[in-house]
Fold ABC transporter, ATP-binding protein.
Amino acid sequence: GRVEAAESLRPGHGGLLPRALRRRFDPADPATWASRDLLTRIGVVFQDPEHQFVAASVRAELGVGLRALGRGAARVRDEVDALLERLHLDGVADANPFTLSGGEKRRLSVGTVLATGPALIVLDEPTFGQDRSTWTDLVRLVQSILDEGRTIVSVTHDEAYLRVLGENLLPLGPAGEES
């Protein structure tokens, strides 16, 4: 149920996104947005970070969205360097994303979304597979995103995460209905 709810947030899949965003972010139907517009409005971080990696290095992965937005090489380099530092990934910048630890993969997947600056970020099980240290780092990162004024929708089983960061909760039952 939770995964289906998160999936319904994606444009073209019907469900929650068009109604929720029509008033707050843009009156147009999100299914009509151009890809470039979508990059700066909605970002989705999958439960399995590896499902969204497309580049051969951490540095290149963080630059994918920026290049898609038409940013110049110097600006991409500067923004990627800032993200590498913010995400504590500067030591693995040239590594293949698939060789990273679980915590590093999760931070990279969040970073790929942060790069394009979307107003709404959907996180599917953001703390899955994290040890205590990487869990804490991730919660701090999510809090910093919220402090920037962005909206985050998290789909999670993690009650500790919800106690720390949860503001408006919508508990769902096994079939995806409100419980």
